[in-house]
Amino acid sequence: MLPWTSVPHPQLPGQGIPLRLHDTATGEIRPTAPGPTARMYVCGITPYDATHLGHAATYLAFDLVHRIWRDAGHDVHYVQNVTDIDDPLLERAARDQDDWVVLGMRETALFREDMESLRVLPPREFVGAVEAIGEIVELVAKLLASGAAYRADDAQHPDVYFDHRATGRFGYESGYDEQTMNRLSAERGGDPDRPGKRHPVDALLWRTARDGEPAWESELGAGRPGWHVECTAIALNRLGTTFDVQGGGSDLIFPHHEFSAAHGEALTGSHPFARHYSHTGMIGLDGEKMSKSKGNLVFVSRLRADDVDPMAVRLALLSGHYRDDRSWTNDLLEASTARLARWREAVSMPAGAPVGDVLERVRTHLADDLDTPRAIAALDAWAGETLNRRGRDTDAPRLIGSCVDALLGITL
Ligand code: 5CA
Ligand code: ZN
Known about the structure:
Layout: E1 20-23, E2 28-31, E3 37-42, H1 53-71, E4 75-82, H2 87-95, H3 100-117, E5 125-128, H4 133-146, E6 149-151, E7 160-162, H5 178-187, E8 203-208, E9 223-225, H6 228-239, E10 243-249, H7 253-268, E11 274-280, E12 283-285, E13 288-289, H8 300-305, H9 310-318, E14 326-328, H10 330-347, H11 358-367, H12 372-387, H13 396-408
Parallel strand pairs: 3-4, 3-10, 4-5, 10-11, 12-14
Antiparallel strand pairs: 1-2, 6-7, 7-8, 8-9, 12-13
The protein binds 5'-O-(N-(L-cysteinyl)-sulfamoyl)adenosine and zinc ion (ZN).
């Protein structure tokens, strides 16, 4: 698929700082240590509805990773998928008497516009599951041949499942106990009660064709791919083994990232699948989880249609720490709109408070597990001093503008 259009990315003076990032597998904040090319995979949307502020917050967090690595001199190979064939898409299309292909294309197009408006740097490769079916089939066939996968004991629908014991390491990514794993797989589409599976937690790799469902002919028989293996194939075939960061929201810690890693490790024998498993907190609305069933989704496109400045949305979503579950409120948007106006006024002054170590502080805070609240506080302090006409540094307004643009992705 075509990714969205990139925005200019100013070069800052001095040297960017190596990024330290929280890793779910170890529970620690550890240095990322990419080579000249940093490799990141972030789980993309399932395009059956518009992008809400939760999705946006997750892509903004990984946009900071992208920007910090670039500032530190790395080339960034960023891959993102689109789950353009899966149950939610088929269910929504059936409900609305829509064509699932058209629905997916429409929502993906809207997602691109949303990402562009929020100035998220595009991935180098943006890959739909449908485009990747050939590579997924090849991977599943190898897992079957090696004994890591098996056919369900069901003559009519011999679907292919992954034996979660195949690597001997299952559970290292999430660290969850068996009871939690069973509960989460049941809640998140893991079909624990399906007859013919060897173990309730085993995950679907290939679903054989059912009446009325789309299916692709393949050496596995006609069918369609399971979810976790989509991300394994798309990541491994572009980034190779042991890439730097596997990212997504905390709802993907289990089963999705546990299985994506286990599939990949069973296939290649190489551990770990990713060096960091990085997860963002969930965004809610006014203290409640944002979810379809509660009908309390706030869409980026709705805010755009209401003429809300996307830079205020971006600043609002970055004003909390990415790992905290947090809420979207009108007050937050108002406060961020006011902050943005103050920053804009400050950078339009002919001179400002001395830049001093402001750039260094913003870099240091962001490199410390994306500590946006402290980075933003450092910028607030500079803007406050500048607006009190405390400064004569004529370079400061321009330099701070570039810093906010390059590192936070906000144009002032
Ligand atoms: N297509 C899969 C990933 S392969 C998927 O989870 N799609 S999604 O559309 O449901 O979510 C897209 C991304 O947004 C995922 O990384 C997910 O973890 C994240 N996400 C979903 N809801 C929220 C939320 N309320 N707050 C923060 N991030 C969220
Ligand atoms: Zn994924």
